[in-house]
Amino acid sequence: MGTVLAIDYGSVRVGLAITDSDQKFALALKTIPAEPKNECFEAIRRIANDERVERVLLGLPLSLDGQEGPQASAVRAFGNELTNNLGLPLEFVDERFSTKSSTLAAKMKGLKSPDAEAARLLLETWLEKNSNRY
């Protein structure tokens, strides 16, 4: 079993989190700049190779009623480019309620940026829902 990488994409910063090799725990990894995009993709590719990532999750910001807006379109475009760059399975995951939780958790942990924490919460939620899936 390989690791799963979760990404919280933003136009300025990209938060990253990863599972352990048994896919039991979600760990905040780091935050990287979103631009220039080629450097962002290269950083993600290095992490994916180094950590033996087998699947990528990308948080999809939906409105409270589940609709996709402009930010969701930007995330989908990023995801399509990422898939072309990595060649790994990509899954979009609803992140509607992660932003507020990650901001609070980041403040409690004394983190300057909640982005990696948002990715960790996204990954943790996915692990809970999919613990028997693979």
Please characterize this protein's 3D structure:
This protein has 134 residues and is of the alpha/beta class. It has a single domain (3-130), classed as YqgF/RNase H-like domain (Nucleotidyltransferase, domain 5), CATH 3.30.420.140. 44% of the residues lie in helices and 26% in strands. It is built from 4 helices and 5 strands, in the order E-E-E-H-E-H-E-H-H. A 5-stranded mixed β-sheet has the order 3-2-1-4-5, with helices on both faces. Helix 3 (98-109) packs across helix 4 (115-130). The longest helix is centred in the middle third of the chain and has 17 residues, at 70-86.
Q: What attributes characterize this protein structure?
A:
alpha/beta, 134 residues, Nucleotidyltransferase, domain 5
Number of strands: 5
Q: Sketch the major β-sheet.
A: 5 strands, mixed
* Number of alpha- plus pi-helical segments: 4
Q: What is the H level of CATH, i.e. the homologous superfamily? A: YqgF/RNase H-like domain
Number of folding domains? 1
CATH third-level topology:
Nucleotidyltransferase, domain 5
Distance between the termini: 9 Å
Give the assembly state of these chains: single chain
Derived from helix and strand composition plus strand pairing, the structural class reads alpha/beta
Q: Tell me what the CATH architecture is.
A: 2-Layer Sandwich
Summarize the structure.
It is built from 4 helices and 5 strands, in the order βββαβαβαα.
